[in-house]
Design a protein that fits this description.
The complex is a heterotrimer of chains A (306), B (505) and C (357). With 306 residues, chain A is mainly α. Chain A has helices spanning 3-32, 40-58, 61-85, 90-109, 142-160, 162-172, 174-179, 184-210, 222-232, 237-257, 264-268, 270-286. Chain A has a single domain, classed as ABC transporter involved in vitamin B12 uptake, BtuC (Orthogonal Bundle), CATH 1.10.3470. Chain A is built from 12 helices and no strands. In chain A, helix 2 (40-58) runs antiparallel to helix 3, helix 2 (40-58) crosses helix 9 (222-232) and helix 9 crosses helix 10 (237-257). Chain A is globular and about 65 Å long. Chain B has 505 residues and is α/β, with parallel strands linked by helices. In chain B, strands 6-7-8-3-9-10 form a 6-stranded mixed beta sheet, with helices on both faces. In chain B, strands 16-19-20-13-21-22 form a 6-stranded mixed beta sheet, with helices on both faces. In chain B, helix 3 (96-104) crosses helix 4 (111-126) and helix 14 packs parallel to helix 15 (432-447). The N and C termini of chain B lie far apart (60 Å). Chain C has a single domain, classed as ABC transporter involved in vitamin B12 uptake, BtuC. Chain C has helices at residues 13-38, 42-55, 57-82, 90-107, 115-141, 145-165, 204-223, 225-235, 237-242, 247-274, 285-296, 300-323, 329-350, and strands at residues 2-7, 351-356. The termini of chain C are close together. Classes of the chains: A mainly alpha (306), B alpha/beta (505), C mainly alpha (357). Chains in contact: A-B, A-C, B-C. Chains A and C meet through helix 3, helix 4, helix 9, helix 11 and helix 12 of A and strand 1, helix 6, helix 11 and helix 13 of C.
Chain lengths: 306, 505, 357
């Protein structure tokens, strides 16, 4: 094994991990505010198809990515409306949006399947890219760097600022937050929208960087892995980075093990099996009050009749 | 001198009940004004209106002479009104500083650091010392209350409302609270003290407004009235302070607890070697402020929590760490502390709820198949016998009032003629009528020969109902004795952990 | 002006029907708008769907064909949902049933008259086993079953692909792929296929099993102590503990029944319709069944009606895929929107809307 083998593993790891990171970060904010958004998969794939179509039509990456984010936000606002205002069951609402997103993306993308090699290769920014082994980290596209910056910023906001305190309060004890004048609905809407927008962004990454094609169902459950990663990272944006790249690493290993004759489909099971294993290990610590799920997660907040 | 607050003609109606019926209320500066009444009298509703949690259907509010409209707690806070609720609105996973910052910090960056100074300052000034970096889940009830008071005082409020503040405090913490209140009073602040405890009113209040069933019955100065008069105003008739209870011979030991040790949910030792015996035909009361291991004790005895060591014996049979079902089948009834959370299935109907303990036994069930007719007739019978107010046995349990939920639970638990009854805070939050009913039922069971273990924070309840009583503090029994042989002073000291007494047989 | 929600005590049957119907109407209008953007006339599309599903004899029989797997999955899901156990893995459990059936049908060394029963049994067991894993994780370790059952779906599909492209691939047909380019296993022998009602594709044995399971499961839910325990677990797990109910046992048994029924649905699809194992044989029955179970809930008649409705959409949907050249995803889209509107209007069942100053 020479250096270039490891470098390619690292590259794959980072590229595979970035869409997961985006979606996980978004879902962390949604869940921290108390909203369980199971529509991540649907929002991701809608982001992917939107970015692809807009990108191909306009030729602009900025438009493509922005459109994907907007689509993600729009879908998540539906979820927010149904769960927060209409007090519908959050689990079923998320599932419905995933079904809808998968279906709609299929319909929208049909004219673009197999479109020969639309290359929207992303911008590569060479920085400290000459370092052996770790070089690949610094030879990535803009969205990769953005995801890391975002993770740090989102961590800081959540744990060191007033708005972060309010967001977390909505997820832990919305009645307390409400009594102190916090607009719980607004914060939950906003955090759900952030969740959707970032999921859309994660999907956009898939169809513009990871594989600049459109394939029906190309998210392949990554949205669900992201939901599991939120638990794994104990709802903290910094730990999400670890989780996302860990899973990126599994995809990388999967890819490289192909050379050893293990059937692709069996390897393809790895991310999902790994997610289940990860969830098993996350649970025993979740019991500890410090790191568990936000106390009011998934429970609609109903202010008593005034 | 102008009143700080004046509420005139307040009306508030909820579906099915008039919570406030043309209520007037006034608070002067430098006054501690008690709002006295039984549960459900409308006191909390009135103050929630003042604090902006509810909006009145009609009536006017004046603060410092100006008419105001209070639409949300933020408005109340701007007017200088702070409230400490009965159920603390604190976030367990946050630190003290973060909880305070949530409502009061001005800066975006590191708001918890910003509020630390003021927390310490207020703590010194009013004797409300608390560590700003401590997590709420680490604090005792008294310390949590201090955080709430600090929150209420943060913006130099002139009016402080406290809703049943002493229900979670030890006697020492209560006197610390009272000295804090007196300090606030001396600064000219006005304090509203909501309570249903007559004793406290005479210790701390200057004026007392008595409410009953949504109306104001009267306003008195402390010097001008007596405990009996206030009690009469509260309840509307002569109150019997002691329950009718005949002396009874104690039978053999039914429940024996030997050196029980157990952990609480946080992994801390909650029971540190508890031992006592309850005989048939005896009511054994356990007094003590909530949070001293009573919850864990009840859970271990009823099979809901594992004991680390020690034994529980029912009629001589070792039932330590056996399942709740096995313990129930030995003739144990459990009236749980958390009525709604644990005691009923809110989405299921009366009939289904009433059969929870015996659905798997004949005649309700044979070979796995339920006999619906028997279940229904059982429900009808119990509904009448225990006077459960509900439109039909098909009504879902969530629509029942608190008192009726407790009747349902009693019906279910007591109808199988239990030999051991475990009642945890059975009258908490219930009105006088329901409370009397439940106490009567417990005495009835004892008269029928059952052993009754009663855990309650209401010291008066323990004193009047128990044949033998014990005091728990920090997971240990501080002393056991007959209520009429223990002095109030001894009891108070035991509750505060300062005294131990020889355990009498 | 504010919107205030006032809790209602009772829901009249009429109101429930009205609210549900309104939701479906709104959903149809929304999807119609999407059709219009796509370039198709919504009225034409809906006509085609409705007539396709219910207007012709073939349509009705096909609707019943689709009803079989939907009903089996839906009934199983209605059971576990009652216990607030969210089995999103019916699709994977169905696939496992299909895999087991194919394996037994092609290679089991038993006399031919035993093959069909063996296929059903193995399908049930395979589906139950697939559900058992997430069930045990939830029961013993409180691991969220929504995600685990869902992930198991992806694993199941991968397993299917692996088998069909790999060891089970029909060797002698390697030059003979279907037009969509999918690989497949060898065709099942006659003794491993189910009889159908003449002139239709309705494999009536599975249909009978489906109807029987509907009746049995509802009897189980409403007339047995197990059903009672399941309801208590779903309504208030703390009360279940208080009463000494063995919550683990309830979760495990109900999940295995649910998985087993989905497995049988898989057997039916292979032995009755496909006669071989190939990828894509399930058009999301396991997911559509979630909506059915959620809609039908307590009421077996409601489950039957919802199943009929969604079967109709599936059949109608397959017609418009051909005539309007829409992708399979259009059915998912439909289902998603219908569910969203049902959810959003659910609030009208439990609350009245008042305008407050």
């Amino acid at each position: 094994m020479d250096i270039s083998f490891y470098e390619s593993v690292i590259s794959t790891m980072l590229v595979a991990g970035t869409p997961l990171l985006y979606s996980t970060l978004g879902e962390i904010y949604a869940e921290r505010s108390g909203v369980l958004n199971l529509g991540v998969e649907g929002m991701m794939i809608m982001g992917a198809v939107t970015a692809f179509i807009v990108g191909k039509t306009t030729g602009s990456l900025i438009f493509a990515v922005s459109a994907a984010v907007l689509v993600g936000i729009a879908l998540s606002l539906i979820h927010a409306f149904v769960s927060i205002t209409m007090r519908g069951n959050q689990i079923v609402s998320g599932l419905a949006l995933t079904m809808f997103g998968l279906g709609l993306s299929s319909v929208m993308g049909i004219k673009y399947i197999g479109a020969p090699g639309i290359s929207f290769s992303a911008i590569k920014i060479p920085l400290l890219s000459q370092i052996p082994l770790l070089g690949p980290i610094f030879r990535r596209d803009a969205l990769f760097y953005l995801s890391l910056v975002l993770a740090v910023v989102m961590w800081y906001i959540l744990f060191r600022t007033k708005i972060g305190v309010r967001i977390r309060a909505c997820g832990e004890n919305p009645a307390a937050a409400d009594a102190l004048g916090v607009n719980v609905s607004l914060i939950r809407y906003a955090c759900t929208a952030i969740g959707g927008g970032l999921a859309g962004l994660g999907g956009a990454y898939l169809s513009t960087v990871t594989a600049p094609f459109w394939v029906d169902g190309m998210t392949a459950g990554r949205g669900w892995i992201a939901v599991a990663l939120v638990i794994f990272s104990f709802w903290s944006p910094l730990r999400a980075i670890v989780g996302a790249y860990l899973f990126g690493g599994i995809e990388a290993v999967q890819f490289n093990l192909q050379a050893y004759g293990i059937p692709t489909d069996v390897l393809g099971m790895m991310p999902y099996i790994a997610t289940i294993v990860v969830m098993i290990f996350s649970v025993s610590e979740t019991v500890r009050k410090r790191f568990g799920a936000p106390a009011a997660l998934g429970i609609p907040f109903v202010r008593e009749e005034r | 001198m102008e009143p700080l607050v004046r509420m005139v003609g307040i009306r508030k109606i909820f579906p099915g009940v008039v919570a406030n019926d043309n209520v007037d209320f006034e608070l002067m500066p430098g006054e501690i004004h008690a709002l006295l009444g039984e549960n459900g009298a409308g006191k909390t509703t009135l103050m929630n209106i003042l604090y902006g949690i509810y909006r009145p259907d009609s009536g006017r509010i004046y603060v410092k002479g100006k008419e105001v409209s209070i639409n949300c707690p933020a408005d109340a806070m701007k007017l200088g009104i702070g409230m400490v609720h009965q159920n603390f609105l604190l976030i367990d996973r946050f630190t003290v500083a973060e909880n305070v910052a949530l409502g009061f910090a001005k800066k975006q960056i590191r708001p918890d650091v910003e509020v630390k100074k003021r927390i310490i300052e207020l703590g010194e000034r009013y004797g409300l010392r608390v560590d700003p970096d401590a997590y709420i889940w680490q604090l005792s009830a008294g310390e949590k209350q201090r955080v709430e008071i600090i929150k209420a005082l943060y913006r130099e409020s002139d009016v402080l409302i406290l809703d049943e503040p002493t229900s979670v405090l030890t006697p020492i913490e209560v006197s610390e609270l009272f000295s804090t209140l007196r300090k606030l009073k001396s600064e000219g602040k006005g304090i509203v003290f909501i309570t249903h405890k007559l004793e406290e009113v005479f210790q701390i209040a200057d004026r007392i407004t008595v409410m009953r069933k949504g109306k104001v019955v009267g306003v008195k100065r402390r010097e001008e009235t007596s405990k009996e008069e206030l009690a009469r105003m509260m309840v509307g008739r002569e109150v019997i302070f002691r329950v009718e209870k005949k002396e009874r011979e104690k039978g053999p030991v039914v429940l024996e607890v030997v050196d029980l040790r157990a952990l609480n949910d946080k992994g801390v030792l909650a029971l540190k070697g508890v031992s006592f015996k309850v005989h048939s035909g005896e009511i054994f009361g356990i007094a003590g402020v909530a949070g001293n291991g009573q919850k864990e004790l009840v859970e271990v005895i009823t099979g809901l929590r594992k004991a680390l060591s020690g034994r529980v014996l029912i009629n001589g049979i070792d039932v330590t760490n056996k399942s709740p079902r096995e313990i129930g089948l030995l003739g144990t009834a459990h009236i749980p502390e958390e009525r709604v959370k644990m005691g009923i299935m809110p989405g299921m109907d009366l009939a289904e709820n009433l059969v929870l303990k015996r659905y798997f036994l004949p005649p309700f069930c044979r070979k796995g198949v339920l006999d619906m007719r028997r279940i229904k007739s059982n429900a009808e019978k119990l509904r009448t016998e225990y006077d459960i107010m509900a439109p039909s046995i098909r009504t879902k349990a969530k629509f029942l009032s608190g008192g009726n939920i407790q009747r349902l639970i009693l019906a279910r638990e007591l109808s199988s003629a239990p030999k051991l009854v475990i009642a945890a805070h059975p009258t908490y939050g219930l009105d006088v009528g329901a409370t009397e009913y439940i106490r009567r039922k417990l005495v009835e069971e004892r008269d029928k020969g059952a052993a009754v273990l009663l855990v309650s924070e209401d010291l008066e309840e323990i004193l009047s109902l128990s044949d033998t009583m014990a005091v728990m503090y920090q997971g240990e029994i501080m002393g056991i004795g007959r209520p009429d042989e223990l002095s109030m002073e001894d009891i108070g000291l035991m509750m505060a952990g300062s005294k131990r007494m020889e355990v009498s047989a | 002006m504010r919107i205030a929600f006032v809790k209602k005590e009772k829901v009249s049957f009429k109101r429930m029907i009205a609210v549900r119907a309104a939701a479906i109407l709104l959903a149809l209008i929304s999807v119609g708008i999407i059709f219009w953007f796509y370039g198709a006339d919504p009225i034409e599309v809906y006509k085609e769907i409705f007539l396709g599903a219910f207007g012709t004899k073939i349509g009705i029989s096909e609707t019943i064909v689709k009803l079989i797997p939907l009903l089996l999955c839906g009934v199983g899901l209605a059971l576990v949902f009652r216990g607030q156990i969210w089995n999103i893995g019916a699709e994977g459990q169905l696939v496992l049933g299909a895999i087991a059936a194919t394996g037994v049908g092609l290679w089991a060394p038993i006399p031919s008259y035993l093959v069909i029963p063996a296929m059903f049994l193995s399908g049930f067991l395979a589906g139950a086993a697939w559900a058992f894993i997430p069930a045990v994780l939830r029961a013993k370790m409180n691991v969220n079953e929504i995600i685990t059952t869902l992930l198991m779906n992806y694993i199941a599909i991968r397993l299917l692909y692996y088998l069909v492209y790999g060891p089970w691939r029909a060797r002698e047909e390697w030059g003979n792929m279907t037009w969509s380019g999918f690989a497949q296993t060898a065709i099942l022998p006659d003794y491993a296929t189910l009889q159908t009602i003449p002139g239709t594709r309705i494999h009536y044995i599975t249909l009978a099993i489906a109807i029987a399971s509907l009746i049995l499961v509802y009897l189980l839910m409403n007339r047995t102590s197990f059903g009672y325990e399941l309801k208590v677990v779903g309504d208030n797990p703390m009360a279940a503990r208080f009463a000494g109910i063995n919550i683990s046992r309830v979760i495990l048994i109900s999940m295995m029944i649910s998985g087993g029924l989905a497995g049988i649905a898989g057997v039916g699809e292979i032995a009755g319709i496909q006669h071989r194992l190939r990828p894509g044989f399930s058009v999301g029955y396991g997911y559509t069944a979630i909506i059915i179970a959620w809609l039908g809930g307590l009421n077996p008649i409601a489950v039957l009606i919802s199943t009929l409705f969604f079967s109709g959409i599936l059949v109608g949907g397959s017609y418009i895929q051909i005539s309007f050249r829409m992708p399979v995803g259009v059915i998912n889209m439909f289902n998603g929107i219908i569910l969203l509107f049902l959810l959003a209007t659910e609030v009208f069942l439990n609350y009245s809307i008042r305008m407050r100053r």
